[in-house]
TrEMBL record:
This is Ig-like domain-containing protein. One of its GO terms (cellular component) is plasma membrane. PANTHER family: IMMUNOGLOBULIN V-SET DOMAIN-CONTAINING PROTEIN, T-CELL RECEPTOR BETA CHAIN. The keyword Protein transport does not apply. It comes from Echeneis naucrates. Keywords: Immunity, Signal. Pfam families: V-set. Residues 25-116 form the Ig-like domain. SMART domains: IG (SM00409), IGv (SM00406).
């Protein structure tokens, strides 16, 4: 029997594909981009499974990434070609991956000032 995995994406003020149906064992790529400008270079990816609360998977900048809550790079990958776009990949899809995935961005806001 062939199983498919359904991924749904939500976004406001972003360009993001909204739904994907993929076969088990394959990968699903989610593209997210915005036009808020280069100062919005911090991108976050979240997942919400049916009946559960939303959980943060990863925080990224154009040069780094940090996974949260037991989410691992073996399952998820991130590419950030520039500050205004990113691609999130769910690898080796399983039925348990079915859910809602969200991207968000924030503007860098450093409250410390440099003094010499």
């Amino acid at each position: 029997r062939q199983w498919n995995v359904f991924l749904c994406f939500q976004s406001t003020q972003f360009n993001q594909n909204l739904t994907l149906w993929e076969k088990m064992g394959q990968s699903a790529e989610i593209h997210c981009s915005h036009t808020k400008g280069g100062s919005y270079f911090q991108m976050y990816w979240y997942r919400q499974l049916p009946g559960e609360t939303m959980k943060q998977i990863v925080y990224t900048t154009t040069s780094s990434k940090e996974f949260f809550g037991g989410f691992k790079e073996e399952k998820y990958s991130i590419t950030r070609p520039n500050a205004e776009s990113g691609t999130f990949t769910v690898k080796n899809l399983e039925p348990e991956d079915t859910g809602w995935y969200f991207c968000a961005v924030s503007e860098h806001s450093d409250t410390d000032t440099c003094e010499s």
